[in-house]
Amino acid sequence: MSVTAPAYLSALRGVVWREALRFLQQRERFLAAMVRPLVWLFLFAAGFRAALGLSIIPPYQTYITYDIYIAPGLVAMIQLFNGMQSSLSMVYDREMGSMRVLLTAPLPRWFLLLARLSGGVFVSILQAYAFLAIAYLFGVDLPLWGMVTVFPALVLSGLMLGALGMLLSSTVKQLENFAGVMNFVIFPMFFASSALFPLWKIKESSLALYQVCSWNPFTHAVELIRFALYGELNGQAFVIVAAAFLTFLLAAVWAYDPSKGLQPRGGRG
Amino acid sequence: MSKASRKTAKSGAKPNGSERAPALSVSGLSFSYGAERALDDVSFEVMPGRFTGLLGPNGAGKTTLFALITRLLIQDRGRIEIASRDLARAGSAALAPLGIVFQQPTLDLDLTVGQNLAYFASLHGLSGTARDHAIARELERMDMGARSGERVRVLNGGHRRRVEIARALLHDPSVLILDEPTVGLDVPSRAAIVAHVHALARDRGLAVLWATHLIDEIEAGDDIVLLHRGRVVEQGTAGQVVKRTGAKDLGDAFDGLTREISP
Predict the structure, then answer these.
(1) CA nearest A11 in B: which residue?
(2) Residue B199 lies in a domain
(3) How far is B95 from chain A (nearest CA, A)?
(4) Same domain, residue pair B32 and B90
(5) Which residue, of B172, B194, B209, is where some domain finishes?
(6) Of A1, A10, A269, the CB nearest to B122
């Protein structure tokens, strides 16, 4: 079989289909993915609504309530968790051997990894839209047309966070080691970002923390989504998220290069 | 003298095949894990229509060799050709004629048999009716046609192996490589799978490379490559090896060859 465009398309479709199928068959995973941001939205945001005053900052045209402010951050959080979940499943696949089935397909490894990444992004977008729909139905005042304009931002931020997860999965040799990585990546990335508080408020309390948040690519994923929800493009966030995506992807492809040795488990028989 | 026969003469063995080009050719292959040499100057050929047993005790380097042939690792030295295509030059595209059954189970337990096969088919460019026909055909051949809708999780070890063999044949490969595929199976399942793969070589003209340390899986007319401590210590047909070593049977030859060079 020569490797033609339909062969690439067939593989991409197959990998995305498998990821979607696995996700839909794991109902508890879907439930967990939804409960986490909804708890933040309906409990955390409700509590902070009175305590936290927000000035008018772009892209908002007027004063907004806190639940509106954190909604984009929670969408990004869904994608962050999904990116890490996806990488966890890559470690699982590698341990269980099914990763070998993917990596021994007669297609370039960069493409196979990109296809795997796309599958994860597809699942994360499904979750993000489910969350946005629930938030909207429960009265979080988000623009309806923003559901359309946010799509490209979700794709790019999903790719960036998925590529980061993929890179992490390449460095983790065993499933048991992954919990530590999750703690050292997810929580610092989420809390040191503009997901929960605007950067100007962070700057007021700590300049050092502000610098950390400004360098955090997750901050820019949040801002990309926030602006896109209002039909606007945050150019700086776009460039940083795109650059971070390419960097993480290239590093992941390099890390999964066979000459670096994806060692077979189960001895050297 | 053909290239294939030159190689054979050099290695001191004569595979029982025709003058056709080898389906799989390995020459001068070496690989190390850091300072530890896992394979050292390994050369052999697998001919179309032949069942070639890659024999060796645990730790001989069989799994490393499989990882190199499937491009999960890249060799330090040497050359691998699949259907006359150099793996190092052609890259992953050269894997197209290869059907692979790994030692470790690689099916997705949460998907059905049919979904697992459909996923694999998509990776090999099969879709639509061609894919559905291939899945039905190969499952039927493995006597698993009625199990297509069942989750892999509910299948026993023998049936899972059958599904993996059916999957490896979906894209109609010319070379089938299997890394200790009968490990952990009961005797009837093992015998059925061994017989089926022999029939695949005989009837479909597949070149089969079957890694094992179980001598009873090899038939007298099979080719064998005996690997020990990362080196090929003997090759030829099973009968030739027994005759050359003066052993009473292949098991005896195996014991002798792997013992006499042990410390």
Answers:
(1) B123
(2) yes
(3) 5
(4) yes
(5) B172
(6) A10
Q: Are residues B250 and B128 in the same domain?
A: no
Q: Which residues of A touch B119 (CB under 8 A)?
A: 14-15, 17-18
Give Cα separations from B116 to A105, A109, B37, B150, B172 (angstroms). 14, 20, 36, 11, 17
Interface probe for B, chosen from A29, A98, A109 (most Cβ of B below 10 Å), is A98
**What is the number of structural domains in chain B?**
2
B102 occurs within a structural domain:
no
Q: Are B217 and B238 in contact (CB under 8 A)?
A: no
DSSP letter (8 states) at residue B228? E
B208 and B180: one domain?
yes
The boundaries of the domain holding residue B129 are 107-172
pLDDT tens across the length of chain B (263 residues): 334 333 443 344 444 444 679 999 999 999 999 889 999 999 999 999 999 999 999 889 999 999 999 998 988 999 999 999 999 999 999 999 999 999 888 998 889 999 999 999 999 999 899 999 999 999 999 989 999 999 999 999 889 999 999 999 999 999 999 999 998 888 888 999 999 999 999 999 999 999 998 999 999 899 999 999 999 999 999 999 999 988 888 888 888 888 755 44
Using an 8 Å CB-CB cutoff, list residues of chain A that contact chain B.
1-4, 6-7, 10-11, 13-15, 17-18, 21-22, 25-26, 96-98, 100-109, 258-259, 261-269
Alpha carbon A55 to its chain centroid, in Å, reads 28
- Its ipTM equals 0.83
B198: its two tokens: 């022999």
* Euclidean distance between CA atoms A115 and A9, whole angstroms: 10
B212 touches chain A (CB under 8 A): no
Spatial separation of the C-alpha atoms in residues A15 and A258, rounded to whole Å: 20
Examine the domain organization and report whether B86 and B212 are in the same domain: yes
Tell me whether residues B33 and A268 touch, CB distance under 8 A: yes
Q: What is the CATH number of the domain that holds B91?
A: 3.40.50.300
Which residue in the set A13, A21, A266 is minimally distant from B115, CB to CB?
A21
For residue B74, list chain A residues with Cβ-Cβ distance below 8 A: 258-259, 261
Q: Which two tokens stand for residue A114?
A: 């990109």
Final residue of a structural domain among B172, B194, B225: B172
Residue among A1, A4, A21 whose CB faces B124 most closely: A1
Q: By C-alpha distance, which of A81, A83, A172 is closest to A121?
A: A83
In a domain, B88, yes or no: yes
